[in-house]
Write a structure and sequence with these properties.
Elements: H1 10-35, H2 45-66, H3 68-75, H4 84-115, H5 122-126, H6 133-143, H7 145-163, H8 175-198, H9 223-226, H10 229-235, H11 250-256, E1 260-261, E2 274-280, H12 305-311, E3 315-317, E4 320-321, H13 327-336, H14 358-363, E5 368-373, H15 382-388, E6 393-395, H16 397-400, H17 414-425, E7 432-437, H18 462-480, E8 489-495, E9 517-520, E10 528-530, E11 534-535, H19 539-546, E12 553-554, E13 569-573, E14 576-581, E15 584-588, E16 593-598, H20 614-636
Parallel strand pairs: 2-7, 2-8, 3-10, 4-11, 5-6, 5-7
Antiparallel strand pairs: 1-12, 3-9, 8-9, 13-14, 14-15, 15-16
Length: 645
């Protein structure tokens, strides 16, 4: 295809218009920082430049979402798109859609000091019942006249620059050239559009959300410089905003359930043990023979011979539950004691709240902190969350730097990556905290070629991959046991969530959340089995208590070992709260209980005993209501940390 000149190319015009928007978003970001400089007092030039660079990813995503219809109008393979009337209509579509987006982006410059966060879609529900919305709007325009002026200038610049890119009708010799070229470009532009919206090309990269901004900042509050308001609005369209509950007075709710932990009050000194956490991808409790000796009439062997042997030397929690069914729910639960209720914490409106975690709390005690994940850096948003959680070092596929061990789908095979991990641990100054998230026991459940046939195929495709990861753990511990820091280390082993099940008891709303949970102390101080219900969110307070951590901290979980009172396990399944205490599980819709089961005697949860056990259900409902009140309040108020004097 021969074009008369570059100016006539409608595709070049489209690219230039998108670049104009990118430039205007850059102006908005600089203005946001400049007008709110006093709220970000310690940002260095290099840090600010990093934020500007990181912001490009979020700007591209917002621009592509907002302009998806406009882009479509410019790439459809019909000659009508070159006519003046058609282009004039498209021009107004461009002005209106981007004008609204830029208005929100500029408006947040003034609104941010009041909320200390980017505006999300909850704004509309927040002001839904206001009777004076029009007067409030005009009052905003006058009180913050300089913001209004800035918006007018930005819109004027938008119009001026747009008109500089108006394409001229293209003259082509043959129709087949025109249509062939246009059709060939459709999938290319479509692919770029999707990648831009998602924030990357890799299949393992989840669509970026608010929490991903943490990857580019040092302090949690700085994520709002990286973000833009149109992106924040779009990403929270479907998220449910929490509402404060008032079931009890503040004194009453704290007596029933209090997420503020006072710290160890004994005279015992803080123990500077290393803490190592292994979070295993998709490891259901069902896969471990040692946790299921009664399955298949006592003949069940499982697929994890190493973990079965390790649990005999560990404190094994045989009745443990994940706080969600997604990897992105598992990480905050394990590392920061924040369960995802109704939706994953990292996808919620509150994902940029400041949090306590192993990283931040142990760093205050002089710990080296790190996180290892063999997937491409940025996968699942883990690098962003761990940074927000105060973990200083991140090691991913880039740091591993050997694509020969790439599984072709998700990341580096578990066995070599765990060896990479243990070698790095040996170089860290003690005490250290380090967590690893495995990747190999994931669909499509492949194993390295040299291990084909080595592990039982089992009854489900996942079983072979479980066997391989178990083997990788054996090799990890074999290497670690030779290291000088080994006996001064607590190892915690659990899963991010459960996976597909074979036995019926693992297909219920209870069994589908059952995961393994072990604490292995090579010094032999922790051994035994505990069948009380526990959860991922309990790991943080349990380990801190083992170390005799003295400072107060925030955690939704409780100490699994030293349970002084009723210990609830709470997660959200099938659009219902599920609370487990003792022998019972209660399902609650947020207003009233809907079912109660004795899961010890009724493993398939077939007999609803709610009507005949009112005393039990009332007690559990009080605990759940106290949890909901505390969870909602602290999420909304951004009080997930404890400030120490």
């Amino acid at each position: 295809m021969r074009l008369n000149n570059l100016k006539e190319n409608i595709y070049i015009a489209l690219l230039l218009r998108l670049l104009i928007l990118l430039f205007l978003y850059f102006i908005c970001r600089v203005a946001f920082y400049a007008f709110n400089l006093s709220l970000f007092p310690i940002i260095s030039t290099s840090s600010f430049l990093r934020m500007l660079w990181g912001g490009v990813k979020f700007d591209i995503s917002a621009i592509f979402y907002i302009n998806s219809l406009f882009i479509l109008t410019q790439i459809i393979p019909f000659k009508i798109r070159h006519t003046p009337v058609y282009q004039k209509a498209c021009e107004w579509l461009f002005y209106i859609s981007n004008g609204i987006a830029l208005a929100f982006n500029v408006g947040d410059i003034a609104y941010y000091p009041f909320t200390l966060k980017r505006t999300t879609f909850t704004l509309f529900s927040q002001f839904a019942n206001e009777q004076n919305k029009v007067s409030l709007f005009f009052r905003f325009l006058t009180d913050f006249w300089y913001i209004t002026v800035l918006f007018i200038l930005i819109m004027a610049l938008l119009v001026f620059l747009y008109k500089k890119t108006l394409p001229i009708s293209i003259t082509l010799k043959r129709n087949w050239q025109y249509y062939s070229f246009s059709i060939l470009l459709l999938p290319l532009i479509g692919g770029l559009l999707v990648a831009g919206m998602r924030g990357g090309f890799r299949h393992s990269t989840r669509p970026i959300t608010l929490s991903n901004a943490g990857e580019f900042v040092e302090q949690a509050s700085e994520v709002h410089i990286v973000l833009n308001t149109p992106f924040a609005l779009l990403r929270t369209l479907k998220t449910k905003s929490l509402q404060k509950a008032n079931f009890f007075s503040e004194q009453e709710v704290n007596a029933i359930y209090n997420p503020v932990h006072s710290g160890d009050s004994t005279q015992k000194p803080f123990i500077r043990k290393n803490i190592v956490i292994l979070i295993l991808e998709s490891f259901s409790k069902e896969y471990l023979g040692g946790f299921n000796k009664d399955l298949d009439n006592g003949t069940y062997k499982g697929y994890t011979p190493f973990l079965d042997s390790l649990m005999t030397q560990s404190m094994a929690f045989t009745n443990a539950y994940a706080n969600g069914r997604k990897s992105i729910e598992g990480l905050p639960s394990v590392l920061a004691s924040i369960p995802g209720i109704q939706e994953p914490f990292v996808l919620s409106n509150y994902s940029n709240n400041k949090v306590n975690s192993f990283g931040s709390l142990l760093a205050s005690q002089g710990y080296n902190t790190s996180f290892f994940h063999g997937a491409p850096n940025g996968s699942m948003g883990f690098s962003s969350f761990t940074k927000m959680a105060g973990i200083k070092q991140y090691f991913g596929m880039s740091e591993y730097n050997n694509d020969a061990d790439f599984d072709g789908m998700w990341g580096i095979w578990d066995e070599p990556f765990m060896q990479f991990w243990v070698k790095n641990l040996n170089q860290f100054k003690q005490p250290f905290f380090s967590a690893l998230f495995s990747v190999s026991s994931h669909h499509p459940f492949k194993v390295p070629e040299q291990f084909e046939g080595k592990f039982p195929k089992g009854t489900l495709p996942v079983h072979q991959g479980i066997g391989y990861t178990d083997y990788s753990l054996r090799q990890f511990f074999k290497t670690a046991s030779k290291m000088p820091w080994y006996k001064n280390t607590l190892f915690i082993i659990t899963a991010d969530h459960s996976s597909v099940a074979w036995h019926d008891e693992y297909k219920t709303s209870l069994g589908a959340y059952s995961v393994p949970l072990l604490i292995f102390d090579p010094s032999g101080n922790l051994k035994g089995k505990d069948d009380r219900p526990v959860q991922q969110a309990d790991i943080l307070p349990t380990i801190l208590n083992q170390l005799h951590y003295k400072q107060p901290y925030f955690a939704f979980g409780s100490d699994m070992i030293n349970q002084s009172k009723e210990h609830p396990v709470i997660y959200f399944a099938d659009d219902l709260y599920q609370i487990i205490t003792g022998d019972y599980v209660l399902k609650h819709d947020g207003i009233k209980p809907v079912a109660l089961y004795n899961y010890r005697t009724d493993k398939l949860l077939t007999k609803n005993i709610l009507s005949e056990n009112e005393q039990v259900s009332n007690k559990m409902e009080i605990l759940l209501e106290a949890f909901i009140q505390q969870y909602n309040k602290n999420m909304i108020d951004n009080t997930l940390t404890v400030t120490t004097p």
